[in-house]
Amino acid sequence: MVTIPPQPWPTGLAEDVEPLVKRVLAPNPSPYTFTGTQTYVVGMADGPDCAVIDPGPDEADHIAAILAAVGSRKILAIMCTHTHRDHSPAAAPLAAQTGAPIVGCAPLMLQVAGPRSDEAFDPTYAPDRVLVDGEGMRGTGWTLTAVATPGHTSNHLCFALEESGALFTGDHVMGWSTSVVIPPDGDMGDYMASLEKLMAREDRVYHSAHGAAIDKPRQLVRGMIGHRRQRENQILRLLGEQARPVSGFIPEMYKGLDPRLIGAAEMSVTAHLIDLEKRGLARLSEGVWQTGVQG
Fold first, then answer.
1. Residue range 32-53, pLDDT digits in tens
2. pTM
3. Coil vs helix vs strand at 268
4. Distance between CA atoms of 263 and 284, rounded to whole angstroms?
5. Do the beta carbons of residue 22 and residue 40 sit within 8 Å?
6. Which residues contact 192 (CB under 8 A, 6 or more apart)?
7. Helix residue ranges per DSSP H, the chain
């Protein structure tokens, strides 16, 4: 179980991460957000313009902290990696206050019956421009290029800061925890492919939306791929022992799990099972998963 570091956390303060990057922590800690969502302001400290990445929740104090970090600079783009409620809701009020365009991931809203174990999607998100893989934004001394990384959500983007070799990874890769993949929008096959895509890159450092900077990114991604493959092998082994509902996998796979995270664990196992089903290795019958029909 991940332990959240003790308070006080630097909520509302503009921290210098690297010469072109400041970080502002939102006041929304939880088992899913760690110490909270990290908003990044990208641009020369004494330059005329900047970009804001993942403005976070619509909290007046957080928006004020972002504006303080921006200072007198013009915001050329408010850029969102994806549209979970802890990432994009502040985009609209920040745009209203500054006149900056909202640029980045595509809008997305799902209607899902029953309780959700992830952060719900933001229905207010309305981008002025949607970026596709390889498109970007440019300002004075900075360039941000979109890297499409679907999986955690279907609309997830990372942003590469070309001048420094940094990659803003949103929720796709985080140092404090693996990303939760929640069907029906989250897709384990896409997520694994996106991890492989990052393995082929040579980014110097990752700045994620939650947790500390990742200074050995490829090593972490390699470990995450291995972890997911290990989970897949666990599922296949348990399926081989007996058919079971999703809840039947959790006690064996997640020993000592925080009860607040059981729902997320079940969704992650479901995402693996759906991926295995697509590959003919598992099948669902009347709420019970079993090994796939062999040819």
1. 889 999 999 999 999 999 999 9
2. 0.92
3. helix
4. 19
5. yes
6. 151, 225, 228, 275
7. 60-70, 91-98, 188-199, 217-241, 250-253, 262-278
